[in-house]
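Proteins fold reproducibly. Look at a sample protein:
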Amino acid sequence: MRTHLPLAFLLLAGTAAPALAQTVQPVPASPLPDIVVTGRGIAEVDPRSDAIAILDRDRLTRTASNRLEDALADIAGIQSFRRADSRSANPTSQGITLRGIGGNASSRALLILDGVPQADPFAGWVAFPAYAPSRLGQVRVQRGGGSALWGSGALSGVIEMTSATPDQLSPLTADIFYGERNAIDAQGSASLVRDNGFASFTAGYARGDGFVPIVAQDRGAADRPAPYEQFNASARTVIAIAPDTELQATVQGFTDRRERGQAFTGIESDGADASVRLVGRGRWGWSALGYVQTRRFASSFASVAADRSASTQTLDQYNTPATGLGARFEIAPPLGDAIAVRLGSDVRETSGETRELYTFVNALPTRRRVAGGTTRTLGGFVDLKATLGDLRIDANGRLDGWWIEDGRLFEATLATGATLTDTRFADRSGTEPTGRFGLAYALAAPLTVRAAVYRGWRLPTPNELYRPFRAGADATAANAELAPETLEGVEAGIDFAFDDRFTLAATVFANRLNDAIANVTVAAGPGTFPGVGFVSAAGFYRRRDNLDSIESRGVEIDGRARLGAFTLGLSYAYADATVTAGPLAPALDGLRPAQVPAHQAAGTIGWAKNGFVASTALRYVSEQFEDDQNSRSLGDALTLDAVVAVPVARGLAIEGRAENLFDARVETGFSGTALERARPRQLWIGVRAALD
């Protein structure tokens, strides 16, 4: 693995440091009067018809792994395409989704940070190593269609991350942990808070020698540990530029190096982002946001011999540059206490291409491929929330225009430079209406009933449209004619709330995902197939296509209680999901989507008093299928995490952490006929320090 910092990140760091230095200059003798700086967007309005699950800062920063995806696992129903986390998974398997509608590399739930979409611009997966939990103040999860407010990608829900606010920041924090397999995990932050603004800087570093992903009984000489090394940093400045207006500026970056546990499976990811947001908090609330994302991804793929004695390189995806650009404006006119309206518009453009060497002969590539394109969306929305006595109305609507442009696939031989393929795909465009209408009625002081209907949508990514790929012996062809996915859903629920001591929400839902994009099995090897070439007898030929639909019905339960020094949490999600493939692949009709469990559950118990902290997290995921044909199953898994912290001095504590304490086997996929596992037991010991 390469361990150098990429040029993009060095440039980012160089721009972040001066910005921070300028922000922390002494405050003038006469600061602006009556200024409240928060770093947040336009304030959320209470009347809602959906259940919101919330992860607070204490939970975000006290997980056994100290990683964002671990905290998200407290909310049942959130899942990556595969069970492995970002230390051992291929990033292409880390698209996130909700409500059992399945997925692939791309996310079907929208992850945002301070209003900025976070998915990879080219492929739609999430780069989890980019986020140090200590930089976050809160995570809010809305299950169900959120496209009316946020546009493409919010099919099954919205995971909204917000940065820490001044009251959550300490002047200096640092923690460092050492764990099994020579692992190091360290995070640090610095902040300066003044009457007219604040600045914060956060950095995180993690590395480890890794574990062998293949289970012991299936390993061969080709199998080895999968090491990782990751770094992230962010700098954020919030300044009041007028009594009712604040300027928020953020720069962030990350590097990620992993291996998948065999020769020729190295992975490199780098990213650098910047955003600027103006927020007005006067009588007319308003927000204006602009952002840019840059990404680089490289990955090598290997084929493993049947007896797992050796690996042979099959693909060198040596560079996948991608860029995301976007802007958003919204305004909230003053209409009184009973009615709140937000109107706005946003635009987002994503572009990128994959550059690959393939068809290896005698360990050398013989062909080169370049594939990619651009997608763009432009939409406008209106959101209405009204309170009429005990009745709350929550309604919004949106219209988006979309464009798919500049699609291309170029392939050539390396020896002669002769062109094999030079295809320019036709540009396409269209419109998508989306919306949500919900009602909530307060039956009594602690009890509210609610119901909602909604429609959401997602535009295919350039990765899905144009990039063929291989995973082991299997090969999947791209499809430039993919249609956008749309989702129609209905839900109903009840909420109990006894102030902040006890909350319970239960929701039943039914979703139908139309034109679901899936990797559809077409034929078994050996043979030569369009878009991918030769597939061996050990592999399958698949093609990305729009299935007729995926239907998912289920229930979600979330509860939280505070009993003195104890905090209790419970989350459960059940999803009965089935595929209707239609004439495209009738053999799939009635089967479950790949990688979708029926049951997910999480329970947490936390105790904190006088600086002592103890917590446990018990998580369960039921059996799921590896493939679209439901021919390979992955067993269920029950894991237990634990954290104990003991104060030894003011602002200093010793902490022990245990991931998967009893080393339960978490099955995540297959490599040929060999079974892969994820998240083996990992024990940590370290210290945390904070300067108040």
